[in-house]
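User: what does the whole thing look like in 3D?
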Amino acid sequence: MKKLRLTFLFIFLTVLAAFAQTDVEMADRLRADGKIYVIVLIILIVLAGLFIYLFLMDRKIKKLEDRLK
Amino acid sequence: MKNGLKITAIVILIYVHIAGLLMDVPRLAILNETVRALYFHVPMWFGMVLLYVASSYYAIRYLRTQQPDDDVRAESFAHTGTAFGLLGIFTGMLWANYTWGSPWHGDPKQNGAAIALLVYLAYFVLRGSVENREQRARLSAVYNVFAFAAMVPLIFIIPRLTSSMHPGSGGNPGFNVYDLDSRMRFVFYPAVAGWFIVGWWMATLRYRLKKIKEKLDEREFA
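Assistant: Here's the predicted 3D structure for the full assembly of 291 residues, as structure tokens:
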């Protein structure tokens, strides 16, 4: 069973490697235009993190306020 | 502050960061792609000014009604405004380094903004140095009004009278003439609105924390 799974994995990886070398269409958008989309995503992640942080702090303060009531 | 407003601000800022980085901008010599800093650097200053407006509004309200909460509100807004101003200074220095040639150019607007920030820093020094709550509230409310009155000429008037490399100063055209494509407004104004709402949110968080601390202090005394 384990051997079979390993064989499948091997075949899968070989096929993947073969595809990577050919000129088929791939998801290249993130690599286009000097990879600007990557940096857009990075900035959005930072922004999302900042806002999640603010929301969590908001919730913590709310809990403290409720406890003091 | 309503959750809907917070989410609106977040949606606006997500739009601003995508459009600000990807949309077409005017092709200008020297500035090149850094013209996009308009979407990220300038809203810090607009946000700071709006937060300081809110701060002095509460300071004046304190002087009229003597509500202690208004003093705490004024302090919270001034604090967040100063944080925005510092971000404005640092982003501006980085921008200046690559477009004007050095981070500190002695540009009147740059100097004026730095002095305005120092004036506001003195506000916190003043607050920290008075023990009595009522006295601190009254003194700092008066000083707050003065600080705002000092900031306006430092940032908006003096740079216009002398030669400054900032747009809209010293004979340099502002937004509406040739150097700012009207397309840029569709990102710039939302950016200002979004950051101002987030700053407002941050100020209310600080206010609420201070109120909690106040209540805890009262309990300790009781």
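In plain terms: Chain B has seven helices and no strands. Chain B has a mean pLDDT of 90.
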